[in-house]
Recover the amino acids of this structure.
């Protein structure tokens, strides 16, 4: 049942050329990344907005010390319609779930919204998407300084106004957390269509159902059904954003019927799955 991810790594490389400053608070770094490419855990003194012009990435970030939840990390599945805000100093790592045009916005700490002390998922507005694209100019075609300042101000304003969504999936700490629970969580995230019970997942990592249930409560502050629902929502939204049918998304997330999936989704999100579909990209 448990599936191992492809073994690969993509080095971060030198970020000095993209370091933001008080005078230039927003820098955009563009990279084409292949599926399964991985950015090792790291942190930096500035904030970051992890965004994809295309493709899907998984961003795992540490919670701030003041967070109320007991989990140390939160994992986000990020399609082009969403982005993840990573606070200054927060440890994080990123994996490409499919080939992606990855856009990293490095934002000076002085320009970070005061209300965002941790990490969260943002809804990317059409205006923010186009502003990022306009700011992402090639070194051989430098942006006019006045235009660049205006674009940076627009990007910051759109980020501040962006809607947020509570779609993170909490994970136990890779060092201090229980390794069996960590392995179970990662296996479920890699195979969201599996309809296995908690007892079956637990057996796969060498634990009993009772032990696994206790670990979810103790380390993540959630029951397994509550945690799996967060994992299902995290996987479902990118599929809907890519135009897949509700029936296909229900099957891809382990639901036997689209009606059961739709009922869960509407209860959790306040809107039906069809509200989040990008119908212009729906498969034929």
């Amino acid at each position: 049942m448990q599936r191992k991810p492809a073994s690969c790594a993509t080095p971060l490389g030198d970020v000095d050329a993209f370091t933001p400053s008080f005078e230039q608070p927003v820098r955009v770094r563009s990279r084409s990344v292949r599926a399964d490419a991985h950015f090792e855990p790291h942190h930096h003194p500035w904030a970051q907005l992890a965004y994809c012009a295309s493709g899907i990435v998984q961003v795992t970030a540490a919670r701030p010390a003041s967070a109320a939840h007991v989990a140390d990390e939160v994992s986000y599945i990020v399609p082009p319609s969403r982005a993840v805000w990573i606070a200054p100093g927060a440890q994080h790592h990123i994996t490409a779930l499919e080939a992606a045009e990855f856009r990293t916005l490095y934002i000076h700490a002085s320009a970070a919204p005061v209300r965002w002390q941790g990490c969260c998922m943002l809804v990317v507005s059409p205006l923010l998407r186009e502003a990022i694209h306009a700011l992402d100019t090639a070194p051989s075609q430098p942006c006019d300084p006045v235009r660049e300042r205006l674009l940076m101000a627009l990007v910051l304003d759109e980020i501040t106004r962006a809607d947020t969504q509570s779609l993170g999936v909490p994970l136990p700490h890779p060092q201090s957390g229980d390794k069996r629970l960590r392995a179970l969580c990662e296996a479920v995230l890699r195979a969201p269509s599996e309809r296995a019970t908690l007892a079956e997942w637990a057996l796969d990592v060498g634990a009993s159902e009772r032990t696994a249930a206790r670990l979810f409560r103790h380390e993540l502050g959630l029951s397994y059904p509550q945690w799996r629902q967060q994992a299902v929502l995290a996987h479902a939204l990118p599929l809907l954003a890519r135009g897949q049918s509700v029936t296909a998304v229900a099957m891809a997330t382990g639901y036997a019927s689209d009606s059961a999936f739709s009922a869960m989704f509407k209860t959790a999100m306040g809107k039906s799955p069809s509200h989040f579909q990008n119908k212009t990209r729906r498969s034929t």
The chain has two domains: 17-165, 178-281. The CA atoms of residues 180 and 207 lie 7 Å apart.
